[in-house]
Design goal:
By secondary structure, this protein is α/β, with parallel strands linked by helices. The chain has 14 helices and 22 strands. The chain has three domains: about 140 residues, Alpha-D-Glucose-1,6-Bisphosphate, Chain A, domain 3, CATH 3.40.120; about 220 residues, Alpha-D-Glucose-1,6-Bisphosphate, subunit A, domain 3 (Alpha-D-Glucose-1,6-Bisphosphate, Chain A, domain 3), CATH 3.40.120; about 80 residues, TATA-Binding Protein (2-Layer Sandwich), CATH 3.30.310.50. Helix 8 packs across helix 11.
Length: about 450
């Protein structure tokens, strides 16, 4: 019987529990299928620090090589380091990671040459179909001439490329606490920061895919507590928190307070617009703060609003020729990084901006935190469509209200907005709200939650 991969092949990647849902035998078939669907002569493969990652990535490499593909293994790396290798070598790539998921999970993030994303509509569905077919009919015939598997180290070149995009040589000395969460930031940060005028205080840099200290998911405030405390204790200028595969970066100011990813998006957008002569397109998803398009326009740029999710951001980056894109989830995308996301490059921009003037980070980012947001609030519901319809009915007839359905339902007034989106994988509705002041935000948040949870 063919394997049912519907539980592990997601919209943008492969992800599931090892070995319960997938194992090295399936990884080998994924490698063969990736080789066939991309029609590649060569690919690059990397992996994170999870206990199952070396075995899975090695099996994937063998599967691709058996189909005649030459495989370059770059070993331990962050996801954005894999994107760098895909872009610099102009090769399709596979990154073995489950990002911030618990230790028993693993997955594959796939891209075509130049770090172009592979999702359900761009090859992932076909890859799944091939793997399912082969589990039923037997492994594919090997190529007449197998490919080779060689090793390469791209860490130094990745770090040099990032440093070439942001000038940090003349900044004032800064003290930065970095929480790698036992993830791949512990591998990449020392090399990227080498030689910069920074005093770096490392936290949880030991690579350990069992995550003994806290989950490597900085989106959850509970996982920032250790870093916030350490920033205050050290009298540091800022703190940086990376997720498990180190493609996302969260920023903590000198007072130990989180800086919203929308504020970071606005800050980096202003810098990238200045670097590109005061013009260019900036992509932001529809639940970033009102501040983002305002700052983009104030700095001569053109903001483009899009759906949530990296495939939509990257598609708009390519379509519009945008120079930068940002999301509320701390994913940051750069034209000069093959439109791929790299939290490390965003962090360098923050360090450069902070180090280029004398004010503390809290003062610097205040100009980018103009409104009050709720953060993302999840509610379990029996019927997503019915709840969204109820919200639409409750607000659609009010004066001065506009509705749009680009991604879920967005309701906007002069003083506030909110968006409600259904989860694709769970019976959840996700609420994000923002207003001009705290009291208004709380009022509209509670109103909407009452309708959702009725």
């Amino acid at each position: 019987m063919a394997a049912d991969l519907s539980q592990i092949v997601k919209a943008y990647d492969v992800r599931g529990v090892v070995p319960d849902q997938w194992d090295e035998s399936l990884a080998e078939l994924f490698g063969a299928a990736f080789a066939q669907i991309t029609d590649a002569r060569a690919i690059v493969v990397g992996h994170d620090m999870r206990p199952s990652s070396p075995g899975l990535s090695g099996a994937f490499a063998r599967g691709a090589a058996a189909r005649g593909v030459h495989v370059t293994e770059i070993g331990l790396c962050s996801t954005d380091q894999l994107y760098y290798a895909s872009g610099a070598l102009n090769l399709p790539g596979a990154m073995f990671t489950a990002s911030h998921n618990p230790a028993q999970y693993n997955g594959i993030k796939l891209c075509r040459a130049g770090a172009a994303p592979v999702g359900q509509d761009t090859g992932l569905a076909e890859i799944r179909e091939l793997v399912e077919y082969w589990t039923e009919s037997g492994a594919p015939e090997p190529a007449p001439t197998p490919g080779t598997i060689t090793r390469a180290d791209t860490l130094d070149d990745y770090a040099a490329h990032l440093r070439s995009l942001v000038d940090l040589t003349s900044i004032r000395p800064l003290k930065v606490v970095v929480d790698a969460g036992n993830g791949m930031g512990g591998h990449t940060v020392p090399t990227v920061f080498a030689g910069l005028p920074l005093t770096s205080v490392p936290m949880y840099f030991e690579l350990d895919g069992t995550f003994p200290n806290h989950e490597a998911n900085p989106l959850d405030p509970a996982n920032l507590v250790d870093l916030q405390k350490r920033v205050r204790e050290e009298g540091a200028d800022l703190g940086l928190a990376f997720d498990g595969d180190a493609d996302r970066c969260f920023v903590i100011d000198e007072q130990g307070d989180p800086v919203s990813p929308s504020a970071i998006t606005a800050l980096v957008a202003a810098r990238e617009l200045a670097r590109h002569g005061g013009e260019g397109t900036i992509i932001h998803n529809l639940i970033t703060s009102w501040t983002v398009p305002e700052v983009v326009k104030e700095n001569g740029g053109t903001p483009v609003r899009t759906r949530v999710g990296h495939s939509f951001i990257k598609a708009e980056m390519a379509r519009t020729g945008a120079i930068f894109g940002g999301e509320h989830s701390a994913h940051y995308y750069f034209k000069d990084f093959w439109n791929a996301d790299t939290g490390m490059l965003a962090a360098l921009h923050v360090l450069a901006d902070l180090g280029g003037q004398e004010s503390p980070l809290s003062s610097l980012v205040a100009q980018y935190e103009r409104y009050t947001g709720s953060g993302e609030i999840n509610s379990t519901v029996d019927d997503q469509e019915a709840r969204i319809a109820a919200i639409k009915a409750a607000y659609g007839t009010r004066e001065g209200i506009t509705l749009d359905e680009l991604d879920g339902l967005t309701v906007t007034s002069e003083d506030w907005w909110f968006n409600v989106r259904p989860s694709n994988t769970e019976p959840l509705l996700r609420l994000n709200a923002e207003a001009r002041d705290e009291a208004t935000m709380r009022k509209i948040r509670d109103e909407v939650l009452a309708v959702i949870r009725d």
